[in-house]
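WARN  no MSA supplied for this record, continuing single-sequence
INFO  ligand: flavin mononucleotide
INFO  echoing inputs
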Amino acid sequence: MKKTLLLYWAPGGNVELAARAICEEIGTGKVEMCDVASFDITRLDDFENFIIGSATVGAEDWRDTRDDNKWNEFFVKTSGFDLSAKKVAAFGLGNQILYPEHFVDSLGYMKEEVEKRNGKLYGLWPSSGYKFSDSEGATDGYFFGLALDHDTQPELTPVRVKSWIEMLSKKMAF
Ligand SMILES: Cc1cc2nc3c(=O)[nH]c(=O)nc-3n(C[C@H](O)[C@H](O)[C@H](O)COP(=O)(O)O)c2cc1C
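INFO  complex generated
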């Protein structure tokens, strides 16, 4: 049984690309990866570590269940799931050039949802090396998880993933 689960949304773009890079860095035999809409939530308790990935796509109300972001549905369905004994880390995709006032906001929503379930986010990531003016996903010089801008800094994605996983492996012991 693998002890780490990586859940992501959406499939087919940069989030999935980053998810694959993260799994490869951890070692594919050590982590199960699934898009969040396909995952059978009755299996959640089989895992000790969770890595959750999303992109900020600018919805006014990110949690509007009518949009096609499947994280919304997942969070509604798992509202009673207790994360206090689990380790959770988040990664978020964004574009700091086009959206400097909302860069990787989704990391903030992830934090909020994890904390509602008595969990906390591991793998905070320094916000130096990015240019943005505001983010729901950052405070005091740190993002709440790994921030990736694969639109404007694709060359940095592999190195960022590598050092984030190095850092996380101390906490999550993959
Ligand atoms: C309609 C739209 C709105 C976006 N809004 C934001 C935003 O508010 N903040 C941000 O950091 N990135 C924003 N982005 C950039 C995406 O998060 C980025 O391109 C990401 O890599 C997309 O991941 P995907 O290919 O998996 O969908 C937006 C992209 C689109 C297409």
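Residues 4-172 form a domain with the Rossmann fold fold (CATH 3.40.50.360).
INFO  checksum written, moving to next record
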